[in-house]
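Is it possible to get an amino acid sequence alongside its tokenized fold?
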Amino acid sequence: MIWKDYASGEGVLRAQKYQYASNSRSILYKYIYSPVAQKCVDILPRTLAPNIITVIAFLFSFFPHVLIMLHAGEDLTMDIPPWLCLISGLGQFLYMHFDNMDGKQARRIGAASPLGMLYDHGLDSVTGWIIGISLCHILKVGNSKYVFLAMVLSSMVCFYLTFWEQNYTGIFAMGVFSPVDEGTTMINILEIMVFFVGPAFLDGPVFMDLTLGQTFVLFGSFFAIILAVGNLRTVFEKHPEKKQHALRNLECLVLLCLAAVIVSFLSPTSIADRRVISLVYCFGLSFCKVIGHFQLAHCTREEFNPWRTNFVITMMAFIMNTVVGYFHGKCPIDEDLLLNGLIIMNLFCYLHYLICISRQFSRVLNINIFSVPPPNEPTINSVNHKVLKTK
């Protein structure tokens, strides 16, 4: 009862034949990031497991985020020390670099697996909103419901739609201007700039009485909308026969956005203005588990069920508690208490998912998660199943 198999045994076996394909037209990736990552991988020991590189990449973005949270907490108006801005910017550059290396190492040593793909994109889904929180701290965007909505749009909705498109086209596609490569590079450069010029240049009005940080968030939201429209258009134009099925898989995204809007504008205590970061944590952890199940269903060729128990509980609890509080002047459950409880629940559920998937795949497919088997030890690649992990 404690260790749950999230995929059927047949599904895990089908995952052995899964081929992960990507198509990145990013200029920075093609001419800089990919060649540099390949040069670094060529000198790595062949005994280094790709999943270790994936975890190291995540830690490069996670540790600076922890330091920023310890310094500023949920206050998005506080000056972040220039040295911490530098650490954050450099850490995210290293995250991008190591994130490009894990797949190349997997192909180099013949250790590619569907579990590696789930690890990679699973941690990427967390890193997306972690980087967003760190950026909002450094740019001093202020505590506002609009910051929370921008975070949901840019780091959750767009991320979901990218995988949603992949589910129907079979390709994880990135354009010439990629939010992963060009977008993150702009963020990193902006953070490093604060180290050299100081945080004062962030305070003055830049556009429509908005500060530089608020302007960056605004235009980032517009760019996210453009990307989202592109994902929708690609699926509906190239696969019109799958339109109804594709729309059903968007229902959970509608619930996510509905809950975010209701909490932002109807909360009696304006919790989206007071606790922006905590709301992003809560929604983000719940969202990441849905993404994990989406990727799992994709590689096992099983039907995706977006209505995960913790996701539905989280969204409906926020909606019902907020709506009742709006009409009666006071929520049935204290909003801060509810938020804290849901964060703990979603963190536990996401960690449980990661541990259970690791146990199931390693058991069924005989995969070593954080080590490379000896050359004479059979792996999934030795039974004529070709699994590609490309960046």
The first strand starts at residue 22 and ends at 24.
